[in-house]
């Protein structure tokens, strides 16, 4: 049985490319080699390279581990934090209908 491949929308791929580039830049700013970061994260250099290239096949746990290694784990807490659309949908359902007057 072959491995499944997720087909990513261009917008999602662009986001992953940006996240990977940000992780790479964070590593370089800290003057860490790919081998140092890979060893600390418990992954191979190839997997780190895939993350930095925005490969969608890498597990989210790997991204989380790398953010922790780089001291950026709090950035994960920002994902879907301000769900503006969800709050609007919820508020529409909370509107109270007018009741008929008491008799």
Based on secondary structure, the structural category is mainly alpha
Helical segment count:
5
Relative helix content: 55-70%
Main sheet characteristics: none
The residue-averaged pLDDT reads: 89
Helix-strand topology string: HHHHH
Are there runs of 5+ residues with pLDDT below 50, and where? none
End-to-end separation: 70 Å
Number of strands: 0
What general form does the structure show?
elongated
Strand portion? under 5%
| Rg over CA atoms | 21 Å
How would you characterize the overall build of this protein?
The protein has 103 residues and is mainly alpha-helical. It has helices at residues 10-29, 34-41, 45-52, 60-69, 84-94. Helix 2 packs across helix 3 and helix 2 crosses helix 4. 55% of the residues lie in helices and 0% in strands.
Short description:
With 103 residues, this protein is mostly helical.
Strand and helix layout:
Elements: H1 10-29, H2 34-41, H3 45-52, H4 60-69, H5 84-94
Helix pairs in contact: 2-3, 2-4
Keywords:
mainly alpha, 103 residues
């Amino acid at each position: 049985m072959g491995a499944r491949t997720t087909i990513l929308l261009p917008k999602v791929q662009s986001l992953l490319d940006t996240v990977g580039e940000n992780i790479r830049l964070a590593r370089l700013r800290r003057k860490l080699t790919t081998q140092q970061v890979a060893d600390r994260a418990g992954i191979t250099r190839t997997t780190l390279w895939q993350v930095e290239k925005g490969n969608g096949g890498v597990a989210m746990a790997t991204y989380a581990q790398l953010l922790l290694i780089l001291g950026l784990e709090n950035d994960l807490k920002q994902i879907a934090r301000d769900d503006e659309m969800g709050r609007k949908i919820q508020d529409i359902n909370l509107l109270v209908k007018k009741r008929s007057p008491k008799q």
